[in-house]
């Protein structure tokens, strides 16, 4: 995976990371509820 700008992560990577965190929170909330 090549990156043109190494100093800052790509917006797409940031978005995926944010979605990943949200999914983990949602999954843990579902696990606690069930």
TrEMBL record:
UniProt name for this protein: Leader peptide
Source organism per UniProt: Streptacidiphilus cavernicola
InterPro entries: Cys_resp_CS_actino (IPR049979)
């Amino acid at each position: 995976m090549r990156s043109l700008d190494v100093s800052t992560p790509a917006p797409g990577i940031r978005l995926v990371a944010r979605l990943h965190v949200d999914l983990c929170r949602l999954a843990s909330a579902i696990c606690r509820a069930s």
